[in-house]
Design goal:
heterodimer; A: mainly alpha; 2 domains; 12 helices; globular; B: mainly alpha; two-stranded antiparallel ribbon; 15 helices; 71% helix
Chain lengths: 232, 322
């Protein structure tokens, strides 16, 4: 039971809004020491695991490329492209990205999207530009809501798409777990049961994205009503 | 043979350049802290594989102290103005998308093609991580093409990279640190304790309650751990396998597939899933990026909660029928 103290540290740290890095360090040390390790053993285990997981931080290598393209006007060009397509709205654009991301993830190509590579340089500025094409100036709160929805579309499409692919880590984890417990299943039999959830996710989130356009219109109208001078 | 170590060296050199350029940035009044943080991360990437486990722990503690006490600053390297960017966009047009697309295309080609090339019996790429190696290769190719096309100052990619890196700030190592925390949790046996608690408290007197307990348990434990992969073995061993599959006769492939997807609903709801929920809030410079439940999580929450209900329903309807 005492070993759950580390979880309490995490929850308390998040509730008190303390910087997560020291909170995680303390949670790791508390968990290790209540779990029967010494202080140095815990610190060594934590250090080893951090070092073994360096591949997670490799994604930052793309930042010099994205930054170079931003200074040369990539976001502006993305906006110009969208401004020409008058039928494109924020919701429809994000829905199109959602479908593309879900299909490519289902084919195992999870690296084709992502926040540093696609959302920040392309999807978010395009979604903002689509709202500006239809409504002119948009309030800041609406702008940040659109950006958040661009990130959300990437995550949700990935999560409810990737498990359809037979060689993705989570399917192999399931197969390995069941095998250890004496149950042999084929990856295809696991992954095909991810399809119903994927279809419902597309329906539910797709509906929300279509409704997002109405919400943007409402928020712009409300902002214009309270500040009529700024709108004209 | 090209291994992941080559990519670590490339990343280490990049972080080292961010550290060096931070020192000279007089606009940032915490420039020495930024330099120390990116410098320590560079050291980890360049030499972490040669250090003892304890030395890596001390290195990580030093990074936590530098970033955790008082925070990091935001560097302001010289960049182009919005007007200049519009002019450049008009000049280069859609050619701007070419380097951006080189990265995913190379990652794809690397995984599918380059990983299968042999030179005199030795594979060109380490077969364990072809995608990550191809990502590094794609970055180099995109930089070469971008520099040739746009002819910016030679230092521009590193300075612009540092600008974006400082926007992410200390959250850059959050996903890696949370993964390490998961390893310590596993070592200390947190999962078994949680699993034991759940199966002691909830009376499993019917298939519906077992399905609900398993799916909710997957989502809740994922919210705490930030990772459905950590929750899956624990909750499936505690509830999924003994009750839903063995006692009530659920199809194991269906139970496990939908159980994992219930965990993903939890991932959409938690700040512990830093690379999905915290990093984009920083990258998109959302004003509430330091809140526990930032704009990204709030945008995801209605879909996540609805999908959790859908997963419970699908598992109950499908698992005992097929």
């Amino acid at each position: 039971m005492l070993v759950l103290l580390g979880i309490a540290v995490l929850v308390a740290g998040f509730l008190l809004r303390i910087n997560p890095l020291p909170v995680i360090l303390v949670a790791a040390i508390v968990t290790g020491m209540t779990g029967g390790l010494s202080f140095t053993e815990t610190l060594a285990a934590f250090g080893k695991a951090f070092n073994d997981n360096r591949y997670i931080s490799i994604v930052w290598l793309v930042l010099p490329v994205i930054g170079l393209l931003e200074r040369t006007g990539l976001q502006e060009q993305a906006r110009i492209l969208i401004a020409r397509m008058t039928r494109v709205t924020t919701g429809r654009l994000l829905l199109a990205y959602f479908v593309a991301r879900q299909i490519t993830a289902a084919l195992g190509q999870t690296k084709l999207g992502g926040h540093p590579q696609m959302v920040r340089p392309l999807v978010a500025p395009m979604a903002e530009a689509a709202a500006e094409t239809h409504h002119g100036v948009i309030p800041d709160a609406t702008r940040f809501r659109i950006r958040a929805h661009a990130a959300a579309a990437d995550n949700i499409a990935l999560f409810f798409g990737e498990d359809i692919f037979i060689a993705i880590a989570s399917i192999l984890l399931i197969k390995g777990f069941l095998e250890q417990n004496g149950i042999v299943v084929q990856p295809l039999h696991i992954s095909m049961w991810a399809i119903p959830t994927a279809i419902v996710a597309l329906i539910i989130h797709g509906t929300r994205l279509v409704l997002l356009d109405r919400r943007i219109a409402r928020e712009v109208a409300a902002a214009n009503a309270t500040a009529p001078e700024a709108a004209r | 043979m090209i291994t992941l170590q080559w990519v670590y060296v490339l990343a280490g050199l990049t972080f080292m350049a961010f550290a060096g350029l931070s020192i000279t940035d007089r606009e940032n009044n915490r420039r020495f802290k930024n330099a120390a943080f990116w410098g320590l991360l560079a050291f980890s990437f360049l030499f972490g594989g040669y250090l003892s486990d304890l030395a890596n722990g001390v290195l990580l503690t030093a990074m936590v102290l530098v970033a955790g006490i008082g925070g990091l600053g935001q560097g302001r390297p010289a960049t182009t103005s919005p007007d200049e960017r519009r002019t450049l966009a008009a000049r280069f047009g859609n050619r701007l998308f070419v380097p951006a697309l080189i990265i995913p295309v190379t990652a794809l080609a690397g995984t599918l093609v380059l990983a299968k090339i042999d030179i005199g019996g030795t594979p060109l790429f380490d077969a364990k991580d072809p995608t990550l190696i191809a990502l590094g290769l794609g970055v180099i190719l995109a930089l070469i093409v971008g520099m040739a096309m746009f002819r910016p100052p030679a230092i521009a990619p590193l300075q612009e990279g540092r600008r974006l890196m400082d926007a992410v700030g200390w959250a850059a190592i959050l996903p890696q640190m949370l993964a390490a925390l998961g390893a310590v949790f596993a070592l200390a046996g947190v999962g078994q304790v949680v699993g034991g608690l759940v199966s002691d408290v909830i009376p499993m007197n019917g298939p519906l309650i077992a399905v609900v307990a398993y799916c909710l348990g997957m989502a809740l434990f994922t919210i705490i751990m930030g990772n459905a992969f950590a929750a899956f073995p624990v909750m499936t061993a505690a509830i999924g396998l003994p009750f839903v599959v063995l006692q009530f006769g659920g199809n194991p492939a269906i139970v496990c597939a939908i159980g994992m997807l219930s965990g993903f609903c939890g991932t959409l709801l938690t700040p512990m899933a830093a690379n999905f929920n915290v990093v984009p809030a920083n990258l998109l410079e959302l004003p509430d990026r330091n809140a526990a439940f930032n704009g990204v999580i709030r945008a995801q929450a209605p879909t996540a909660v609805a999908m959790l209900g859908v997963n419970i329903l699908l598992m109950y309807v499908l698992a005992f029928r097929f």
